[in-house]
Design goal:
Layout (H helix, E strand, L loop, with lengths): L23 E5 L2 E6 L2 E8 L4 E5 L7 H12 L8 E2 L11 H8 L3 E3 L24 H5 L14 E3 L12 E5 L8 E5 L4 E5 L10 H6 L15 H13 L4 E4 L5 E2 H13 L1 H4 L14
Parallel strand pairs: 4-5, 5-6, 6-7, 10-11
Antiparallel strand pairs: 1-2, 2-3, 3-4, 8-9, 9-10, 11-12
The chain binds zinc ion (2 copies).
Length: about 280
């Protein structure tokens, strides 16, 4: 029998925003990044052929905005071929159920992320005690219970290919969540990062609001595994991306990206790992 889709019982609109909210950037001719409040969704595809894929599904209550965005960019009543999730945090799946209902398209995520998308497992509680600012303090209000889209989500192919994005491969970048992925295109070394690292200090409200560009590890209040997180950043740095689009903050490219990523890898424990917090002691070494 069809299972009813539902969000977690703690699902709610989060009143946080940034100056980037509602702004889109053509990062590359076929890659468009758009900010919903404080998180980025990405559209990959050619506007001529209407052949496109949506990466991540925004904040709670943002479905109408996402659908309108797609209609404006790809034509009225256009729909993506699929939705690919970098991970299942509330700010990346916030509108997923309305989008599935509206478009009827498949959703893909990493095998290890499926428990959080099929009602089986909650994410660890966000850590408001972590070193950081106002957003970290607000984080107990963030939903962490699993959503259930069991009948609509499929695991990504084992061979690293990405359905409907033949030039891309997915890369397992755990740490922030167990089944976190990034997407990489070898041809131009374009990297869709998710939250494996971000370009804004996501814990600090004024930095989120102004989107001040500064490389950072994954958002601290929601990252339970810092040693995997470090390995994931090393893996991404080794790809030598030319442009990186992160789940939070502005896209980064060129020398700024190369140098920032190198610095993040070299000084990961100082830059990324918080000095204190619930998930730190057992992992920091
Ligand atoms: Zn996240
Ligand atoms: Zn996020």
């Amino acid at each position: 029998m069809e299972q009813q889709m539902h969000y977690g019982s703690d699902y709610k609109f989060i009143p946080a925003t940034s100056i980037g909210s509602g702004v889109g950037i053509d990062v590359l001719p076929d890659i468009y990044s758009y900010t919903i409040q404080i998180v980025n969704i990405i559209l990959i595809g050619n506007t001529q052929t209407q052949d496109y894929v949506l990466i991540d599904a925004g904040m709670p209550d943002s479905a109408e905005e996402i659908i309108e965005l797609c209609n404006n960019r790809f034509g009225k009543n256009s729909r993506p071929k699929a939705i690919i999730l970098t991970h299942g945090h509330f700010d990346h799946v916030g509108a997923i159920i309305e989008l599935i209902n509206h478009w009827g398209v498949p959703v893909y995520a990493h095998n290890l992320e499926l428990p959080y998308l099929t009602g089986q497992k909650s994410y660890p509680e966000p850590d408001p005690t972590v070193e950081g600012g106002m957003v970290a303090k607000m984080s107990p209000f963030f939903p962490n219970e699993p959503i259930n889209i069991s009948d609509h989500v499929e695991k990504l192919p084992e061979d690293g290919s990405v359905p409907h994005l033949p030039e891309f491969r997915w890369i397992h970048t755990p740490g922030h969540t167990p089944g976190h992925i990034s997407l990489f295109r070898d041809r131009d070394r374009a990297l869709i990062v998710g939250d494996a690292f971000v370009t804004v200090k996501q814990e600090y409200l004024y930095k989120v609001m102004t989107q001040e560009q500064e490389i950072s590890g994954p958002p601290r209040y929601l990252t339970p595994d810092w040693s995997s997180s470090k390995q994931s950043v090393q893996k991404l740095e080794a790809l030598k991306p030319t442009v990186a689009i992160t789940g939070h903050g502005l896209p980064m490219s060129g020398d700024l990206l190369t140098n920032s990523l190198y610095r993040l890898v070299e000084h990961f424990d100082d830059i990324a790992v918080p000095d204190f917090g619930r998930y730190v002691e057992k992992n920091k070494h």
